[in-house]
Specification:
Radius of gyration: 20 Å
Number of strands: 10
Order of helices and strands: HHHHHEHEHEHHEEHEEHEEE
Length: about 280
């Protein structure tokens, strides 16, 4: 099904140009597993033919199907734990001290099927329950995702028992979800209402998003080249208010750009503060 190296090279060049994802030489198996069914359904015999069809028929919907298949959608609730505790114990109280009466704005970049932004919304709710009246203007969470199918799933806010079991405590499940069908739970309206979803490619402009106090861009930069990663981090900095914070994934580090970010140790975890 998947053609030899020249076609693979053509496809990975296309993928990097389109959404920044860099595929190593040893990733043919990944492409084959993710695109095999699509190629078969469309009667496309090689990756080279796939790239040509996408480029010749930009409005056919094929590009979106390729992006959906190739963007990684591994996600879970309250991933790694500490970022959400740091948010409640340090970042929100600091925001309240420095910007009393203002609305907190958080960006969840590459939000996949919605677990991160809804986890953020639950964390904000938990802070408000423990600190009545302190976050007077509330919070807005803007969640962005390149994949149209993932964005639709995130907006639906409905999850099966397998998804619910990944990182969600029973207490949070009971408090923040309604069981809408056997084996299916939906995020409650007050948690959903804090989140606004938008389709966005991280290679595109962020200007429509406005300014943020905190940006969560976790476990996504590892898929980009060093140059693209640095460009994204520069442009994220431009969206942060002075003194705002960037939260990366547990296995990610911000190497370079000392003129833009300061590392802050939180014990556990690290955040990066915009200079």
């Amino acid at each position: 099904m998947i053609a030899a190296d020249p076609d693979f090279n053509l496809f990975r060049d296309y993928l990097e140009r389109t959404c920044g994802i860099v595929l190593g030489d040893n990733k043919q198996y990944l492409v084959s597993s993710r695109l095999g069914r699509l190629l078969e359904q469309r009667g496309i015999k090689s990756l080279g033919e796939l790239v040509r069809q996408v480029q010749q028929q930009p409005h056919s919907g094929l590009r979106e199907l390729v992006v959906d298949a190739m963007t990684t959608n591994e996600t879970l609730w309250f991933r790694d734990g500490y970022p959400f505790e740091v948010l409640k114990s340090r970042l929100i109280p600091e925001f309240i001290r420095n910007q009393p009466g203002q609305r907190l704005r958080i960006w969840s970049a590459a939000c996949s099927s919605g677990q991160e932004p809804y986890s953020l919304s639950m964390a904000v709710d938990e802070f408000e329950r423990s600190n009545l009246g302190q976050l007077r203007s509330g919070a807005q969470i803007v969640a962005t995702e390149i994949s149209a199918s993932m964005l639709s799933a995130a907006k639906a806010a409905s999850y099966d028992s397998l998804a619910m079991a990944r990182g969600l405590s029973r207490e949070r499940q009971d408090r923040y979800f309604d069981e809408t069908a056997p084996g299916e739970w939906t995020v409650k309206a007050p948690i959903r209402s804090r989140v606004e979803f938008r389709q966005l490619n991280l290679l595109d402009s962020y200007s429509i998003l406005g300014k943020f106090d905190i940006v969560f861009c976790r476990n996504v930069l590892i898929y980009f080249s060093a140059d693209v990663k640095k460009d994204i981090l520069r442009r994220i900095h431009a969206t942060l208010k002075p003194g705002g914070y960037l939260m990366l994934g547990a296995s990610e580090a911000l190497n370079g750009l000392p003129e833009l970010y300061s590392m802050v140790q939180c014990n556990p975890g690290i955040v990066y503060q915009a200079r």
